[in-house]
Amino acid sequence: MLRALGLGDLLAGVPALRGVRRAFPGHRIVLAQPPWLTGLALATGAVDAVFPAEAPGRVVPGLAHWPGPPPDVAIDLHGNGPESRDALAALRPRRLLAHACPDGPPWRGQAHERDRWCAFLHDYGVPADPLDLRLPPPAAPSPAPGAVVVHPGAAAASRRWPGERFAAVVRCLRAAGHRVVLTGGAGEEALVRRVAGRSGLPGDDVLAGGLPLGELSALVAGASLVLSGDTGPAHLAVAHGTRSVTLFGPVSPRLWGPPPGPDHLALWRPGPPGDPHGRTPDPRLLALRTGEVAAACLMLLRDGRGRPRPSGTEAAHVH
């Protein structure tokens, strides 16, 4: 199987991976993906091994180094174009499952990412449940059990809510008595430290520079809440059943958001789709106010302590 994408992509693809596992119980299943995601991929229970493959653009060059024999089945869970299809076809599999094949299923452009890949497999006779996405508890303990995890970064500026607004929410959460821990990926050190400085967080609660994935997973699994933009930690929160508030801008949560339910709130302003890879914050993201984000976090944190949930808050997408 090929899915040489990032953290959120892997987690959104878990239901499809597990569908393949159940459909081919006697096969050795190898997932071609970035090697830094190996531990998480194996934790899904859906794959037996990981073959390192990166896809910085549309081209997937890593499969050219495949050392094994032609696979019995090759499955393109990466995209809908000839680039990923051809990379798998070059392995000469006995059977190729791909959108871009002449007899392949249609691309469902407006479907949620989880639903799209499950429907793709269903068209090939492979059942998969879009809600089969939970991960087992991490073996390692959380470095900050019970803390609120705030992740202000995102790969693209269009999905990055302003740092000063994150800082204002952090101040509100701390004033309410919650411990807050900041995280950030590699290259986001300046952003994380800026948010920490504006919110008065002590250094021990600033985890900048990119935690190892296993440690980040344990941190999210043990958190009381995760606040982030549309990026990897939001998907980790869903996978571990940790309550979350996710801020959406250029992409609707109906395409990438959490499943419906009371534990996850996706804040978003409806409008025409934007550029998820844009260089400036999306207007819909900027329309989200500090007060409403803080209120959403405090509501979920209050509910997590056993107090009754107010009526009308069980929708996952709040406009």
UniProtKB/TrEMBL annotation:
Signal peptide: none annotated. Pfam families: Glyco_transf_9. Transmembrane segments: none annotated. Keywords: Glycosyltransferase, Transferase. One of its GO terms (molecular function) is ADP-heptose-lipopolysaccharide heptosyltransferase activity. One of its GO terms (biological process) is lipopolysaccharide core region biosynthetic process. GO terms for cellular component: cytosol. It comes from the Bacteria. This is Glycosyl transferase.
